[in-house]
Every structure is written in structure tokens, then in C-alpha cells.
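## Example pair
The file below holds two records. Each record gives the amino-acid sequence first, followed by its C-alpha cell line.
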Amino acid sequence: MRKFIILLSLFFLLSPIVWAQEPGKVWTQESAKKFSIEEIQRLGLEANGLVLAARSQVNIASAGVVAASAYPNPEVVVMAGPVDRRIPESLTGPMTDQRTVTVNQPIENPFMRSARIGAAEAGVEAGRASLDQVRADLAAQLRVRAYELLLRQEQAALEQSIFDLLKEVHRRIKLNVERGESARFELIRAETELKSVENRKEAARLNAERARVALLQFTAGALPADFEVRASLKDAVALPPLDILRKEIPETNPEIVRLQAEQERTKLRIDQERASVLPSVNVLYSNFQDTQFNANTAGLSVRVPIFYRRRGEIDSAIFDSARIRETLDYRRYEVGQLFESAWQALQIAQRRVEMFESGLIKEAENAVEVAQAAYRFGERGLLELLDTQRVLRGILGDALQARFDLQAAAAEIDRLRAYYPKELIPE
């Protein structure tokens, strides 16, 4: 970009570019606070409501383990009341009261208890995997949005420089027309091109503002309004080799990990339902008191599953386990294909970047320089100069887009393998 402006300034004197955000307010880069990509990810992961909600789900699941580990409480029944006589008082004595206290303590099936606790613990693992997935998705989105903001700002700066150039061209042509050195048709053509470039410049500026607002939205307003991204579209992309990534992603992808935990939980639920068919035992103790007697009795209450053996609940758990297993197999395949697609996109973007940097931009800049010199000596018209500038603008725009596509593909790969600055995230 800077080299492009320097080459153009050989023929036209350009004034320094000042980007006005709104009328009467001038924005300067020094007045804004800069944040790195990692800092933006940290702020977003700390403030975004979806992450906080997913963390609450983990806490809820952890509380479920406490509930599943609790022992059943005893049940105490107290009964009391008067005793009415049916024979004369001379034989029974005076009328009195009687009282009965009964304690019922369930004895839990140890197989059902262990399966229930295991299922609750698997639910915690599933919740943590879901939290990791939300974090990875948000971190990737923040990274892509940050680089999109850089892309839009570069595009806006490009359109601004072209607008300043054509504005100077328009001024010089207008002077030549007034002196009778050029035809008025050249001025009309320059005015038309200037209005077109001005519209593109305004659209690029608005797109940059929209990208800024989108990034603020993903960080839940944690960034200041005048923030700047301390990064570049030319940042190097560092990823492990392809073979390592193919082995790593099925093991670290949060959705696969979550489905594995869900599958374990459904298996334990089957064990829990099957264990519930076994007879359940309650220990009973009862104390009876009246005027003449004080009786203590103890016994067992056994529930025998003869008529209904929880066939419906067991089948439901089996079918649910099959559903999770089939979903897991499909998601393994789908995540693998998503990675292969992201890797191919990364390779394509790298080749495009190399193509632009290997000399294509330089050739377009040289063509503009030649067209400027020819236009200055009257060998070429304004139309030829504008055509070469359009070609250079298109190549520069494509180069910016290729660099952004490279960063976006790398962010997608990091999302699939849940790679983000975890050490900066509070648990």
C-alpha cells in the first residue's frame, strides 16, 4: 500500500491521509488503544454471555454429582391418639393414650448407585466439553472478526488513496480545461470516475465501521470504542504438520469429546435401569407404647419386581445410547471432512498469497508507473491511466482478501482442534 502511494506521488503530490470517522471528529491511530489477537480473545472469553452460560452448565452438572452421591434419607412416622374402652373401667382401668413411632430407612442398591454417580460424572465431562466448544467457537470468531476489521481498514485505506489521487487528477484536468489545453470531455470523464471512487471509499469506510461493531458485539462491549488491533494480515500462520493434525483433531475436538461423554453416560444409564430391577430393601423399626405395654419391632420391606421389570425404561436407555453412538460416528466423519476442507482452503490461500507476492503486484505497480509517465507526456489518455489503476486496485484487493482467507482458514483449523489461549481463561 505504502509503496503504491509512493509510486503514484512521483506524478501527483498527495497530501497525508486523515481518516475522519464522522464530521468534525478526526481519528488518529495514536489516540486508540491497541490490543493483540490474544488479548481480544481473552476479553471476549471473559465477557461473552454464552461462555458464562456454558460455565454455569458445568456447575449445574457438578451439583448433579453431589445429588447422585447422596444417601437416601430415613422416613419417620409418628402416630398418637386416645384409646377408647369397650369394657367397663373397673376391668381396664382409666382411659389413656397410645403412641407409635416408625422409622423406614431405604437401603440403596449399590449397583444402581454406582451407575447413577458415574452417569452424573459423565455429565460433568460432557458439560466441560460443551464449554470448551463454546470457547473454541468464540475464540475463532473473535480471531476472524479481528482480521476482518484489519481487512476492511486496509480496503478503506486503499480506496481513500485512490480517491485522493483522482481528486488531484480532477483538479489538474479542470485547470487544463480552463486554460484550453484539454477537451471538456476529459473533465466529464474525470468527474464520473471521481464520483464512483468516492462511493466506493464511503462504502469501504462503512464496512470497516461495521466490522468494528461486530467485534465489539462478540466481546460484549469489553473493548473500548476506539480500540485498534495490534496485528497484521501478513502475520505468519504456524500450524502442526498435516499428519499430526489428522491424529489430533479426533482426540481434541470438543464436540467429539462431548459426544463420547454422552455415550458413556447413556451406557451407565442402561446399567442403572437394569440394576433398578433388582429387589429394593427398606429397613423398618417401630416402637409402640401405651399404658400397659412398650413394644419394639424391626423388619425388612422388600419390593419384588414381578409384574413390571422396567422394560420400557431399559429400552429407552438402549435406544438413546444407539442414537448417541450413531451421532458420534457421523460427527467424527464430518469433523474430519471439515478439517480437510479447511486445510485445502489454507493451501489455496497460501498459494494465492505467494502468487501475489512473487511479482504480480510489482508488475501492476510498474504498469501504473508507465501509464503515469505516458499520460504526463501526452502519449496516453486518461482512460488508459484509469484502467491501469483499476487493475492495480483489483490486484491489491485480491491480495488483501487472500491474506484474510489464509488467516480465516487457520482460525477454522484451530477451532476444530480447540486451540486457543486456554492459559488466559479463568476456570
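Second record, same layout:
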Amino acid sequence: MTASLPAFAGRTFLFRVDNGAAFRNAYSADGKRLRWEGLGESAGQWEDVTLHVAEIGPQLYFVSWTEVSGITVSHVMDLARMTVRAFWTYEGEGGRVGELHTGTLEQVA
């Protein structure tokens, strides 16, 4: 059985988060990698990451990755509504910190 490509494969999106952060997310043609680039206050930050992807409904994807810094990101991309629900964790004072966010997507390429 051959898995189909995720609908975001080969596309680039502007991801605007409810906390004011913004990212340019460029997905590889096979949908297995992401290059994210920070915008605004995060300008100059970027990373190429390997993705773990599961299609959980029509145009609905669970996507997760771990960054070199130890930050883990998991999000549900709803391409029909162009929205994201994101959860990320990182090492903070006193231990691991988790944050839940919402955001919007705009396809730019």
C-alpha cells in the first residue's frame, strides 16, 4: 500500500500564531521535511526538520517534529479552514513548559 502525499507537500505557508509570532513554513515535495523561518521578532531563526505526519481526516493533518534546541512542536493543520492548533514544549525554569496556540495559514507558494 502506497501512502499518498499530504496536501501540504511542496507548498509554502505563512503561519500566524495567536501570540503574535509568525513563520514561513516550506514543506518538501515529499511532505517529509519542513524548513521553518521565523518572521518579525523571530527573524533570522530557521531550521530544517524531519516531520512525523498522519492524515486524520480530509485535508486534516497531525504534524510533529523535534528541533535541535529540544523544542517539540505538534500541530493539527486544517487545510480546508486554513487554521492550525499547535502545542509546543521547551525547557523552562523549573522544568518542561508547554503552550497551546491557534493560528492561521496563508499559502504563499
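Notes on the second record: Residues 12-107 form a domain with the Lipocalin fold (CATH 2.40.128.20). The chain has one domain: 12-107.
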